Structure formats: structure tokens, C-alpha cells
């Protein structure tokens, strides 16, 4: 789900030594354990793979990589070719670049899930709440995302947009130029609220989502989801993992969140059942509520879910991923809009053109119905002519290109680790031995000529008319991986990012970075890392 690296700490065992001491473990034993469980390097046993040289004084490649990822990788690719070993994030990693990266994504002997588990406590966190489907390599979460989220995106989008708009108006409001731009010092917190409210609405419906406690639960679940990745990037530390797992055993956070949601949902679900029974008795068709919880409830046995608490735990795992990643990505996208203000008006114009076309088509359809003497139904209500529907968002090709370019430009150069579950020989003859971890070098992919010219520059329209939607994965675009395990969440992510972008450019004519000297840093932050400067908003007149 997440692939980005942390630049926040360096040194091989320092992170482990600084970690807090868990309950019940004294200082002496804690120090002993920290030393015991610090990671030892485990490169592939194939000695032909070169180890990248270290700069004098460096004990790992972290500093050189973080100072200038492109320069570091260019140096290594030139000196060692597409496959080489590095010490990064407290790990011994084999970097794979170019066409052999495809072999990693498409070979089931490489597992991103297992690499993630080595590095994060994701599965342990899930196990604090879910009661079913916790066996190894279970496919329930991707299946639920496909069946409960992606399938219903067209019906969710108008609700998401309406809710986001409501919260944007509450949080940012109208800030005309004559009153001075409105400064938001921590836009991430505002966007967390916006995305959590919209996500809660489509997950549990308006009755349950109106509760403050429930919104807080969605936010907490997303924070806990983010914490499994070490808040703002991952760095291997068996010590951190140990403490985190111990905390999970003591505090079982997902179970707590699921219990709150189950308690709030029970009466609503029972009431829905009662109304359905009444409708059936009266021979009237019951209009099924359209939210994720209801869909999961209707299909719980298909996915092997055992009770309402279990359903709520899975809902909060998926919503946690959504709120965490979309909050981060949409906040980051705003910094791009602020850094490249010359593109705001083109995006706004596109939106107006798309809505003008849809409005004209609907008007024509109404006239046709009138001519045929048919009633104009709710589906053609003029009040909804200019709604941001999924169909309207699909037509916004400039916005789509903008989103794809942000991902291409921003995505960490080294990311998406995979653990070798057995010895694998790549087409070059290099052998990646069982138990070693590879990391994908996305630089050659994202800066290949497949992406056009000026690949080291941010050019938001580079994909317009190129049949390269922001969800379309391939060897030239790897933020969501590729192959069988390509991210199933990317459809809702991109759809919602486009909706956020459309709302923001229609409401605000100018977005500025509070401290422009921090622009470069803001554009390159890692997932989940806070950006150290705010944003200023000026409304459209
Ligand atoms: C900015 C947002 C996101 C990014 C950049 C991202 C990226 C990725 C990447 C790189 C992978 C690994 C693909 C591989 O194994 O090669 C992945 C897998 C996955 N992602 Fe995401 N993701 C994002 C958001 C989400 C969201 C919101 C969800 C849930 C709705 C999600 C659910 C998953 C799942 C379940 C997998 C595992 C798929 C499998 O094993 O078949 N992701 N993601």
C-alpha cells in the first residue's frame, strides 16, 4: 500500500537504541534486546552482485541517497548496471532497475506483502481487530476493495463530492482577495477531516457518519494504519517492530475502533432490516442503502466475514488506507498547484467546458423527452446539470494528466520492496537468493523516453491525448506497482484526487506556499511526512 522511504533518520542501530522501553521490560534487558534484534545485512548470496561503494565517513547509503536520489542512482547505474546492492533504511537491499523490474512484479516468488511485513507491523495491526481471513496470503482485502469500492465508484462519487464540498466550505470558507488570502498552517489536518468525512459517509451512510465519534474513529483508524508504516516512512528496526507488536497485544487498537463502529451500526442495520421486512410484506421494492457497510453486510458470507465486528474491522482497514493515503496525496497535490500556479486556470477552464457540455447534453435530452410527451424524471433534474459526477470527472483529461504527473514526479526513486520467497534467477542470470529483499529503482522507468521529453521537469500535460490514464500501470509508471498485485486501491485514489483537484480549482483562484523557500522540499516529501510550511488560499470571485 505504501512504498515510500524515510529520510528522517540515519545510522544502522541508532533508531533501535533510541526507541522507548515497553511496559514490563527493564533497561538492562531492553538494551540487550536492542542489540540482539538490530537487523543484520542479508544480501543475496550471488556474489556477482556489486555492492555500491560508500562515501568516506558514511556507514550506509542513506545520506548520499537522500541528498540527491537521482544523482546517487545515476552514479550506481553507470558504475554497476541495473542490479546492485545498497545499505539503506537499516537493510541490505538489492536494487533492481530497468526491464528486470518487471520480472520482480510478475514472479510470485517475490512478495511485496512479505517484505512489508518484515518492515512494518501491518498484519499484526490487522490481527488486533479482524476475526476471519487472517491466514497467510489471504486475498480478502483486494477482493473487498474490488467488490465494495471500485465497483460502486460512480454512485459514491456524487456523495463524496458533496461531503467534501461541505467540509471545505466549513474549514476554508470564502476568502476573497480584498480580505487577504486565508493562511492554513497545517493543510494536512484540514484534508484529513475532509477525506475522513467523505469516506465515512460512503462507508457507513449518513445516519452513522453524522456522529463526531464515528468521524474520530475513521481518523484514528487512518492514523493507526499510518503508524504501522512508522509515520512518514519506514526504516527497518526489529526493535520498533517488537515494541509496536507488544503495544498491539496490549491495546488491540483495531478491535477498539471496530467495536465503536459496530455499536453505532447495530441499531441502524436492524432498522434497515425492519424496513426491508415491512416493504417485503407490503409488496413494495425496498431501496437498499448504498454504502460499503451495507454491501459488506449483504455479502459477508461470500468473503468469509463472521460478524458485524469483523465486518467493521475490515471496513476500517480499507477506510484507514483510503483516508491515510488520499489525505497525503491530496495535500501534496495542493502544493503542486501552489508551486505551478500557471496551470490552475487551464484546469478550471477544462472543468467549465466539461460541465457546459454535460449541461447542454442534458438539456437536449430533456427537450427530447418533452417532444415525446414523456415526463422529465429525477435523473434529468436541471439542479444536477453541473454536478461533479464520475462521468464528468472521467472527461477531465487535463486533471487526470496532472494527477499522473504528480505521481510520476513525486514517487520515491527507490521503493516497493519484495522479499524473495525462494531462489530466483533473473533473465540476466543474476540469482536473488531466498530471504533477501529487492527494491525497485523507479528512476529509469519514470524518466524513460516513454514519458516524453524533459523527464526531470514537472510537465502536467505530458499525458494528455496519450492514452495514459493516471490509473494505468506499466513499466513507465510504477507508483502503484504492476502485474497481478498492482494496487487495487488506485481507482478510488485517482478518482478522489481528481475530485479534490476539481473542487479546489473551482473554489480558489490562487493557492500559495506560505514560505516559498520550502517549495522544493514540499514537492518531494515522502508519504505521510508533514510539510513544514502552510498554504494560503484566495477564493475565485
Ligand atoms: C497514494 C496511494 C497509494 C499508493 C501510491 C499505493 C501503492 C501501492 C503499491 C506500490 C502496491 C504494491 C504493488 C505490488 O505488489 O507490486 C500496492 C498494493 C496494494 N494496495 Fe495500494 N497504494 C495506495 C493506496 C491504496 C489504498 C487507498 C488502498 C485501499 C483501498 C490500497 C490497497 C492496496 C492493497 C490491498 C495492495 C495489495 C495488492 C495485492 O497484493 O494484490 N492501496 N499499493
From TrEMBL:
Record CDD domains: CYP503A1-like
Domain of life of the native organism: Eukaryota
Keywords of this entry: Heme, Iron, Membrane, Metal-binding, Monooxygenase, Oxidoreductase, Transmembrane, Transmembrane helix
GO molecular function: heme binding; iron ion binding; monooxygenase activity; oxidoreductase activity, acting on paired donors, with incorporation or reduction of molecular oxygen
Residues annotated for heme binding in this entry: 487
PANTHER family (UniProt xref): CYTOCHROME P450
Full protein name: Cytochrome P450
Amino acid at each position: 500500500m505504501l512504498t515510500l522511504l524515510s529520510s528522517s533518520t540515519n545510522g544502522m542501530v541508532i533508531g533501535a537504541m533510541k526507541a522507548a522501553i515497553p511496559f514490563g521490560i527493564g533497561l538492562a534487558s531492553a538494551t540487550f534486546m536492542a542489540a540482539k534484534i538490530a537487523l543484520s545485512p542479508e544480501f543475496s548470496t550471488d556474489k556477482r552482485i556489486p555492492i555500491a561503494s560508500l562515501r568516506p565517513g558514511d556507514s550506509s547509503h542513506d545520506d548520499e541517497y537522500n541528498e540527491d536520489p537521482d544523482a546517487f542512482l545515476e552514479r550506481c547505474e553507470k558504475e554497476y548496471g541495473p542490479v546492485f546492492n545498497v545499505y539503506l533504511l537499516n537493510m541490505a537491499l538489492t536494487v533492481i532497475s530497468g526491464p528486470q523490474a518487471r520480472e520482480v512484479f510478475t514472479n510470485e516468488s517475490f512478495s511485496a506483502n512479505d517484505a512489508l511485513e518484515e518492515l512494518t507491523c501491518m498484519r499484526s495491526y490487522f490481527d488486533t481487530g479482524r476475526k476471519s481471513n487472517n491466514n497467510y496470503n489471504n486475498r480478502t482485502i483486494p477482493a473487498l476493495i474490488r467488490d465494495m469500492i471500485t465497483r460502486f465508484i460512480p454512485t459514491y462519487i456524487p456523495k463524496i463530492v458533496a461531503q467534501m464540498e461541505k467540509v471545505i466550505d466549513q474549514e476554508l470558507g470564502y476568502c476573497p482577495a480584498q480580505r487577504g488570502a486565508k493562511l492554513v498552517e497545517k493543510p494536512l489536518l484540514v484534508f484529513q477531516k475532509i477525506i475522513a468525512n467523505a469516506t465515512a459517509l460512503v462507508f457507513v451512510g449518513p445516519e452513522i457518519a453524522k456522529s463526531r465519534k464515528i468521524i474520530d474513529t475513521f481518523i484514528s483508524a487512518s492514523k493507526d494504519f499510518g503508524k504501522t508504516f512508522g509515520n512518514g516512512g519506514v526504516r527497518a528496526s526489529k526493535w520498533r517492530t517488537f515494541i509496536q507488536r507488544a503495544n498491539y497485544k496490549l491495546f488491540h487498537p483495531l478491535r477498539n475502533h471496530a467495536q465503536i463502529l459496530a455499536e453505532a451500526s447495530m441499531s441502524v442495520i436492524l432498522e434497515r432490516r425492519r424496513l426491508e421486512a415491512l416493504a417485503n410484506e407490503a409488496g413494495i421494492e425496498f431501496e437498499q442503502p448504498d454504502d460499503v457497510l451495507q454491501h459488506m453486510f449483504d455479502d459477508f458470507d461470500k468473503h468469509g466475514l463472521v460478524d458485524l465486528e469483523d465486518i467493521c474491522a475490515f471496513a476500517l482497514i480499507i477506510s484507514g488506507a483510503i483516508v491515510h493515503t488520499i489525505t497525503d496525496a491530496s495535500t501534496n497535490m495542493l502544493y503542486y498547484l501552489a508551486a505551478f500556479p500557471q496551470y490552475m486556470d487551464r484546469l478550471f477552464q477544462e472543468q467549465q467546458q466539461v460541465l457546459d457540455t454535460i449541461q447542454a447534453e442534458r438539456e437536449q435530452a430533456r427537450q427530447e423527452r418533452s417532444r415525446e410527451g414523456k415526463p422529465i424524471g429525477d435523473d434529468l433534474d436541471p439542479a444536477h446539470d453541473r454536478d461533479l459526477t464520475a462521468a464528468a470527472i472521467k472527461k477531465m483529461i487535463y486533471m487526470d494528466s496532472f494527477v499522473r504527473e504528480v505521481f510520476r514526479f513525486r514517487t520515491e526513486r527507490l521503493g516497493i520492496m519484495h522479499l524473495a520467497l525462494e531462489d530466483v534467477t533473473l533473465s540476466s542470470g543474476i540469482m536473488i537468493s531466498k530471504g533477501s529483499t529487492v527494491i525497485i529503482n523507479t528512476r529509469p522507468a519514470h524518466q524513460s523516453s516513454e514519458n516524453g521529453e524533459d523527464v526531470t521537469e514537472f510537465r502536467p500535460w505530458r499525458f494528455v491525448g496519450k492514452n495514459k490514464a493516471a490509473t494505468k500501470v506499466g513499466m513507465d509508471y510504477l507508483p502503484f506497482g504492476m502485474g497481478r498485485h498492482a494496487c487495487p486501491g488506485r481507482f478510488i485514489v485517482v478518482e478522489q484526487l481528481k475530485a479534490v483537484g476539481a473542487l479546489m480549482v473551482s473554489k480558489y483562484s490562487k493557492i500559495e506556499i506560505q514560505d516559498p523557500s520550502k517549495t522544493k522540499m514540499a514537492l518531494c516529501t515522502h508519504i505521510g511526512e508533514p510539510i513544514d510550511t502552510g498554504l494560503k488560499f484566495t477564493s475565485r470571485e
